[in-house]
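Q: What residues go here?
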């Protein structure tokens, strides 16, 4: 049966008789990452924005990337089984609340497990609506986000802000939970100090690499390591196991999968529940990082996680790269990096100019003209200002989300049956 399921997936992935696009191999990805690092090093020297490759910037980027990446990974699980999950934001809300509820009483590790459970409950509700009752996936996801917001705000008032309650005496109120203890972290002894000393010299490329690596090996939460392991585990489960093969067949051709003996409902339920659990863990990461649940804590990261899944073309590696990019921009926002974002204007102008030349060579004059005009406007903006207003810095993660999706849209291919209604026996 595995060979038959492989044929089903191959047919779905081929997209009919359309020629296959060139896939990004690991050497190409590494080359792209090396090129990006070189560009950042050149930009730091030219603009003097030292925070661009500092250890603090990349430590913050790693912390910001984890909840976004976990939400994106959750979306990948659901959509690989054919269920669109825009309810990731609501499932993250449930995760933050459950983590705050259990964390102040039992510590951060129990908070993480509670966050997974809270998100999984949200996933179960979404699966019940979409898989069993056939509710439109988008409507169900929107309803999940609204429901989670209302439930968490109501329960916060009931459990954390009730007059005379233990939670209130411990520091809770209507908008936040009592504080919890710290999640343990670690640094690599010796290496962290050595990298920090190299970074301080501001040598071209060498100090840039040292700063980036120092940010990735200093004061790293054990929950971050667990998140990285989940990315690796997802790849092996979905692409190197019979379970993953059956699950992905449900997202490509559920009727064909059913004809080969796959219980499509079971796999869809499992995928959406895991999806909710991963999003809930992302929400728990936020609560644990700030030592408490607070109202509005997710800040739209579930939606950005959905964007990373699309940018990553429904692959774990792509989701990780997208989460890293958005985490980097989110870290700029949290650090108030007006000067750093100002330096990135120059980088974006250069990239748009290169795109304009490439499109002009391909005889796409309209696209080339638009890209060239925007590149010129960015250069003028960079030349006439010294820093970017704080309001624009706050909007940077969302602007980057739109730009990345618009650029990468032509290379995307979602699972063939994603979002389509399915009923057992409909192929007979």
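A:
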């Amino acid at each position: 049966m595995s060979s038959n399921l492989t044929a089903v997936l191959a047919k779905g992935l081929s997209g009919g008789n359309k020629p296959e696009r060139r896939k990004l191999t690991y050497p190409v990805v590494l080359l792209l990452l090396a090129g990006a690092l070189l560009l950042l090093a050149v930009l730091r020297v030219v603009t003097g924005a030292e925070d661009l490759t500092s250890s603090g910037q990349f430590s913050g980027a790693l912390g910001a990337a984890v909840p976004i990446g976990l939400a994106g990974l959750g979306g990948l699980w659901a959509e690989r089984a054919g269920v669109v999950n825009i309810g990731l934001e609501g499932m993250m809300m449930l995760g933050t609340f459950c983590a705050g509820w259990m964390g102040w009483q039992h510590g951060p590790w129990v908070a993480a497990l509670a966050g997974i459970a809270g998100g999984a409950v949200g996933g179960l509700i979404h699966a019940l609506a979409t898989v069993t009752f056939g509710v439109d996936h988008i409507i169900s996801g929107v309803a999940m986000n609204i429901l989670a917001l209302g439930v968490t705000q109501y329960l916060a008032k009931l459990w954390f802000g009730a007059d005379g309650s233990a939670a209130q005496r411990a520091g809770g109120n209507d908008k936040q939970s009592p504080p919890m203890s710290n999640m343990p972290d670690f640094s690599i002894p010796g290496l962290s100090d050595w990298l920090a000393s190299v970074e301080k010299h501001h040598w071209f490329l060498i100090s840039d690499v040292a700063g980036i690596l120092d940010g990735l090996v200093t004061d790293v939460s054990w929950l971050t390591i667990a998140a990285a392991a989940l990315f690796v585990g997802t790849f092996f489960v979905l692409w190197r196991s019979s379970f993953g093969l059956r699950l992905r067949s449900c997202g490509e051709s559920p009727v064909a999968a059913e004809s080969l003996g796959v219980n499509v409902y079971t796999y869809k339920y499992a995928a959406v529940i895991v999806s909710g659990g991963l999003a809930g863990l992302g929400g728990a990461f936020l609560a644990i990082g700030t030592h408490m649940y607070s109202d509005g804590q997710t800040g739209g990261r579930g939606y950005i996680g959905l964007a990373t899944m699309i940018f990553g073309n429904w692959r774990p590696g792509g989701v990780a790269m997208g989460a890293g990019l958005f985490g980097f921009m989110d870290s700029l926002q949290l650090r108030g990096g007006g000067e750093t974002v100002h330096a990135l204007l120059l980088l974006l102008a250069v990239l748009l100019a290169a795109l304009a030349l490439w499109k002009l060579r391909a005889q796409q004059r309209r696209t080339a003209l638009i890209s060239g005009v925007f590149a010129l406007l960015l250069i003028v903006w960079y030349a006439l200002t010294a820093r970017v207003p704080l309001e624009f810095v706050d909007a940077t993660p969302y602007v980057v989300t739109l730009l990345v999706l618009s650029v990468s849209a032509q290379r995307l291919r979602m699972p063939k049956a994603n979002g389509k209604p399915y009923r057992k026996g409909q192929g007979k």
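A: Context that may help when evaluating the design: Strands lie at 185-186, 220-221. Residues 283 and 302 are 9 Å apart (CA to CA).
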